[in-house]
Design brief:
This protein is an alpha/beta fold. The radius of gyration is 24 Å and the shape is globular. Bound molecules: adenosine-5'-monophosphate-propyl ester. Adenosine-5'-monophosphate-propyl ester is lined by residues 283, 329-330, 404-407, 429-434, 455, 529-530, 542, 544-545, 551, 556.
């Protein structure tokens, strides 16, 4: 019982039955990139790791690599060792000969009366070079330096990322919706002395002040003893400054003005070692401090390019729209690096999918001729709820659709399939994580039938295993829940936790490590942190996180992070966060707090605590409800029993509470819940 409540996401997943299969259409199969049924043989374990040559051969190398995989410092894997490559060259320069005048990016502003901007590969080339010149000459940035970006969904974001990649600078893009404080923490951790932002951007029809967050970030970083010397500010509308905040003399630079000095500049792409870090992506884990996942250049780019080609089925002539935010890994891999490495046209939409109405995505699809669509179950649920009949009003036709980030309920899947895909598009349900670089489990769209509610089998070259808590392997196809791991390294796996290699080993490899100090990859299964089960057909069903992570609307948040934010309020003495099921967002956090002795509960205090979460993290972490409680339910050893709190929040039976040190508190909590119906 206790374990079941702890497997929070599991409840979402396991309430539905095994579903029947849907077949991909013959017209999809006829044009698909990957139709060779021998693919899994080619990527069998006997051919590991050399099978991944096929991934790397999709890229253009300045110098071909000598060794596919070096395991000598396991589990710090090195892929394509000896190779020299540049990500910016692969995503831009190499397409010029054939696709110079083709759109690389279609930028759709949120305000519908503003025209779509089409950035050709030639224009991308010019702008990336000029920005690279600015970063190098104006900011003095060089290979290996880190730079923090806090940018919205605009073409200037991939331009900045590719400019960094061109000169070997490691970018760390922080989701624009994160607070200035959250940005400061990531600036300090990564050691960035340059922050790149934009003055503002539109969200739900309102101009957001992003520059204000930069001022807070620099101030908060300074309070931690860390100095940012330059803030580069892109203008959302070139030539016009859109923020009410003043510029800080000697620190702030308007990028659009400064770029005028670099007109026509061309910067040779650095020949980077394959294993040079390309970027950091911060994500939440089991502690209060987010960790910077360090991704490589060669292995990462090879992985996202192959999976974009064969799982997303991207051809250069496709118009591809991934509705994720570039501030998350999905956007890095499947808006920017994967699609652009293939010479596709990638859509970037500035705003909210349901703005100004839930027909918006389908109008965009119609206008641009989008034929590949990629989004999350949360977005699908929101669009279905707000406008179930909207898709049929518009004349668009997808050949392929993706869902990612959360389990998708079969009922929601079917609406996606029938209404959005109009019964013709193939769907892939892709399971992976920030740490992984790219997809781990998914059907191969032309080869495997779809099964609603299940991610597919593992990708070619990925060999998962499900362990029980005692380290025994659960037999294949046993359909029993356990902890999913990947037996082998793959090119997209992150290299380390920035600045904390011990945490990298401890969190991801120690648990099921078979032999300390081993240099054999077979001894180092990667521990994903998700529960999963595998029925006899081999399709993995992901049950959700088994650690202190909550997946809110597809955004990964650490319960510890939210609790630390609550504890910044001086009146709060204890805090505990639990996930509550939500019809649209999947899960939302409920925050329980106990106050210092003598302090009285009040609405104002609840609001102050909720505000602290927004200031420290982001509105996406805002608790559904702040519960000020007289006491936390605790074990005799003093541990807060979160499962009891979760039961109260969801109106469920708390189960056996006799082992609590203070069982009487449960009745008090129930009373509180009844009084304050949420
Ligand atoms: O619990 C899994 C869930 O999202 C977590 C990873 O979140 P993040 O690092 O933010 O990356 C999200 C996008 C790659 C996983 O540990 N998750 C991801 N994809 C799926 C999923 N749960 C069920 N089905 C999926 N397809």
């Amino acid at each position: 019982m206790e374990q079941k409540t702890d497997l929070s996401e599991a409840e979402i997943a396991v309430h539905w039955q095994e579903e029947g299969y849907y077949q991909p259409s013959t017209s999809f199969i006829a044009q698909a990139n990957l139709t060779d049924p021998d693919i899994f043989k080619r990527f069998s374990v006997d051919n590991f790791p050399e099978c991944f040559k096929e991934f790397a051969d999709l890229l253009t190398w300045f110098k071909y690599w000598e060794k596919t995989l070096d395991t000598s410092n396991a589990p710090f894997w090195r892929w394509f060792v000896g190779g020299r490559i540049n990500a910016s060259y692969n995503c831009v320069d190499r397409h010029l000969e054939k696709y110079r005048n083709k759109a690389a990016i279609h930028f759709v502003p949120e305000l519908e009366h503003e025209p779509v901007q089409h950035v050709t590969y030639q224009e991308l080339y010019v702008r990336v070079n000029e920005m690279a010149a600015l970063l190098r000459n104006l900011c003095g940035l060089k290979t290996g330096d880190r730079v923090t970006l806090h940018m919205p969904m605009v073409p200037e974001l991939p331009i900045t990322m590719l400019a960094c990649a061109r000169i070997g600078v490691i970018h760390s893009q922080v989701f624009s919706g994160f607070s200035g404080k959250a940005c400061a923490d990531r600036i300090v951790d990564s050691g960035s002395r340059v922050l790149i932002t934009m003055d503002g951007y539109y969200r739900s029809g309102t101009m957001q002040d992003q520059k204000e967050k930069a001022d807070i970030a620099v101030k908060d970083a300074a309070a931690e003893g860390y100095k940012v010397d330059t803030v580069l500010i892109w203008q959302r509308y070139p030539g016009k400054y859109s923020s009410p905040q003043k510029l800080v003399e000697g620190r702030d630079v308007i990028v659009n003005d400064a770029l005028k000095h670099y007109r026509g500049a061309r910067i040779e792409p650095e020949h980077m070692p394959a294993e040079a870090p390309l970027f950091l992506m911060y994500t939440s884990g089991t502690t209060g401090k987010p960790k910077g996942c360090q991704h490589s250049t060669g292995g990462y780019l090879a992985y996202v390019t192959w999976t974009s080609k064969n799982i997303q089925d991207i051809h250069p002539e496709d118009v591809y729209w991934c509705m994720a935010d570039i501030g998350w890994i999905t956007g890095h891999s499947y808006i920017v690096y994967g699609p652009l490495a293939l010479g596709a046209s990638s859509v970037i939409y500035e705003g909210v999918p349901t703005y100004p109405d839930p027909g918006r995505p389908w109008r965009i699809a119609e206008e641009l001729g989008v034929n590949i669509f990629h989004t999350s179950p949360t977005a699908i649920r929101a669009l279905r709820r707000a406008g179930p009949d909207e898709p049929q009003k518009y004349n668009f036709r997808f050949k392929h659709m993706t869902t990612v980030g959360e389990p998708v309920e079969p009922e929601v899947w079917r609406w996606y399939y029938e209404h959005v895909g109009k019964g013709a598009a193939v769907i892939v349900d892709t399971w992976w994580q920030t740490e992984n670089g790219g997809f781990l489990c998914s059907t191969i769209p032309a080869l495997n039938p779809m099964k609603p509610g299940s991610a597919g089998p593992a990708l070619p070259g990925i060999y998962p295993v499900i362990y029980d808590d005692d380290g025994n392997e659960i037999p294949r196809g046993a359909n029993r829940a356990g902890n999913i791991c990947i037996r082998n390294p793959w090119p997209g796996i992150f290299q380390t936790v920035w600045g904390d290699p011990d945490r990298f080993v401890r969190q991801y490899y120690e648990r099921y490590n078979k032999k300390k100090g081993s240099t054999d990859w077979r001894d180092w299964p990667y521990f994903a942190g998700d529960g999963a089960m595998q029925p006899p057909d081999g399709y993995y069903r992901i049950l959700g996180r088994i650690d202190d992570v909550i997946n809110v609307a597809g955004h990964r948040l650490g319960t510890k992070e939210i609790e630390s934010a609550a504890l910044t309020v001086p009146e709060v003495v204890e805090a505990a966060v639990v996930p509550v099921p939500d019809e649209v967002k999947g899960r939302v956090p409920d925050l329980y707090v106990a106050l210092k002795h003598g302090i009285k509960a009040s609405r104002e205090l609840e609001e102050k605590i909720a505000k602290a979460v927004i200031t420290e993290i982001s509105p996406i972490a805002r608790p559904r409800k702040v519960w000020i409680v007289p006491d936390m339910p605790k074990t005799r050893s003093g541990k807060i029993m979160r499962r009891v709190l979760a039961a109260v929040s969801s109106g469920k039976d708390a189960g056996d509470v006799s082992t609590l040190a203070n069982p009487e508190v449960v009745a008090e909590l129930r009373k509180l819940a009844e009084q304050t119906k949420v």
